[in-house]
Design a protein that fits this description.
2 copies of one chain form a homodimer. The first copy, chain A, has about 350 residues and is an alpha+beta fold. The first copy, chain A, contains 7 helices and 22 strands. The radius of gyration of chain A is 21 Å and the shape is globular.
């Protein structure tokens, strides 16, 4: 069946894969819903957006994304409450950020009406893939790739914007152990670290695999110049609780402006928890771990929501974090989930109902 | 027609596009030859390599290369002498470097026999696309992309290695004007700058476009920490001639180990030209430009061969470089071309004849 909304041409899938999916055993990002949103940029403008059955697509081997990594993405989630209503969490932040990332990579901005119309129509069509219940969600992946079939090392003239969706449980279920970077780096001053640029992620795979061989799940990156300041964890921003004060690094051109991060900073203010946004020295956190004032460390990101960090290692020295009884991580996680799943009041207007 | 070599299954194209190509007006990297080489990595090993007609291919929207930039490439050229013999230039260096790049991005190494057998068979099939005459060449683009259809931010388990070929003239024909980076950066200490990683290139597009608006062709990148040392130009390494001494920055984890670069260093030794490989301060080069001792600046890379740089700007200060009568750039370019096109002796064994 095909039909048309205000701006979008929709081809509905004739069948659904949903019955073949075990929603109790979901690996992150492996299963996708029945539909996807596609919009091409050609001749200087975005062409008619389409929703079509989820499918493989044809690309020229010379498509610039394959050669020069001109690609950006976002990560969002849709949540369903027990009445079956579907919500997004601060989606305008994702929309604005993907265009900011695109600008840093010399890619054209995507129109706001196409973005939200596409997203809403997609969620309507694939509504059954969004399962209610805290922790269940539909992970939404908007992304833009350079498709121009020419390998000169310059911005492309052709792009594809897509949204694909994957049912998800939370990304890290158990507390994670992290290694503090001493040699490798995630990003440079004046680089693309603040953008959700595709290449930022592959660049972390090798150092992360070395850390994993030593028994750690993730790396907390430090500044590339001196490796003395704690920055972010690649898929998460990081918070430290020293006594009853939260500390997190300021965003910069090296650190992603995380939406979960900024929500936690706001929630801390609401809850009367002091949150210092300032450069965080590795030595300061080690000292706090030694004298017992380091109560908690946790990561925050859309995929991970909030991940408690149970241990970190720096220069061969391992620090176990026992965790606090009045856990801030748990408090923030519950508060966020309650907002996201329409359980509690939403005084900042972060929820956006999908009609 | 299909047939089989030692390791490769070959499907020959039934027709050729060559008659539709104007070889006197080639835009870099837009036209591709009749065949391509493809080899997939699955189940922990490289599968049977194939040569097939050049064509678009199907990819899942969740292929990891689209999301996390897990992709590396090489740039090589094939040259034809006036007897119709075809040569590669130090191809083993490219083979070793693509595997070094792959390692840094947690990708599997490609087997040497597949690489060279694929390359040679491809060049035999597309021999007519290699035009004789200095400056004409066949640009060869080996690349590897992560194809696994799953968007978890970790190394893929499925890859595609490909070689595509595009007839080329030299990349920069006229002298280029460059801007010295003051704010933006190409790479970090401990990052992936030394790898030919796809994401390194898209990261340069935006700052380069800003420089182009000011009338410059390229950026010479500086160290991200202090912006006081000159590093490389993104698609070229850079050499400075002060009086009769060449200076170029040492390779590092931020600077690509260029094959043209290392060939020039060797040729300088052969020709009795002093070449200092050491960190190069911006201020030192500005001072040399002011006192007249800066005779030449040039870039060196496979695509560009050697590009004379006629001017550079740093902090609003513009320096025009008049060029020397006994140009080292021209001398190295001619010496390299003579080796590449089988005109002169090849005492280092850099040429490799394609049988």
């Amino acid at each position: 069946m095909t039909y048309q909304t205000a701006n979008i041409s929709i081809e509905k899938s004739e069948s659904t894969k949903i019955n073949s999916v075990d929603f109790s055993k979901l690996d992150f990002g492996k299963v996708f819903t029945d539909h996807m949103f596609v919009c091409d940029f050609e001749n200087g403008e975005w062409q008619e957006p389409k929703i079509m059955p989820y499918q493989a697509m044809t690309f020229e081997p010379s498509a610039r994304v394959f050669h020069y990594g001109q690609a950006v993405f976002e990560g969002m989630k849709a949540y369903k409450d027990h009445e079956g209503k579907v919500f997004l969490f601060r989606p305008k932040q994702n929309f604005e950020r993907i265009n900011k990332s695109a600008e840093r990579l010399s890619m054209p901005a995507f129109p706001e009406n196409y973005f939200f119309e596409g997203l809403e129509e997609l969620l309507k069509l694939d509504n059954d893939w969004i399962k209610p219940g805290l922790g269940n969600s539909l992970y939404i992946r908007p992304f833009v790739i350079a498709t121009e079939p020419a390998i000169s090392a310059s911005p492309a003239s052709m792009y594809r914007f897509m949204i694909i969706c994957s049912p998800a449980q939370s990304y890290y279920n158990s507390p994670v152990r992290v290694l503090v970077a001493e040699h490798y780096s995630r990003s440079a001053n004046g680089g693309v670290g603040a953008a959700k640029a595709a290449g930022n992620y592959a660049a972390q795979f090798y150092p992360t695999s070395l850390a994993q061989k030593e028994g750690f799940h993730q790396i907390i990156w430090t500044d590339a110049d001196t490796h003395t300041y704690l920055e972010e964890a690649g898929t998460m921003n990081v918070f430290f609780r020293v006594n009853d004060t939260l500390i997190t690094a300021p965003v910069s051109d090296r650190i992603l402006d995380g939406i979960t991060r900024k929500s936690i900073i706001q929630l801390a203010e609401d809850l009367g928890i002091k949150c210092d946004v300032r450069p965080v020295k590795v030595e300061e956190i080690k000292k706090a771990a030694k004298d017992g004032s380091l109560k908690e460390v946790f990561g925050a990101g859309t995929a991970a929501v909030i991940s408690e960090i149970s241990a970190f290692q720096h220069k061969e020295e391992l620090f176990e974090i026992s965790g606090a009884e009045d856990s801030y991580a748990k408090l923030f996680k519950q508060t966020l989930l309650n907002i996201q799943y329409n359980v509690s009041e939403d005084k900042h207007g972060w929820r956006r109902a999908v009609k």
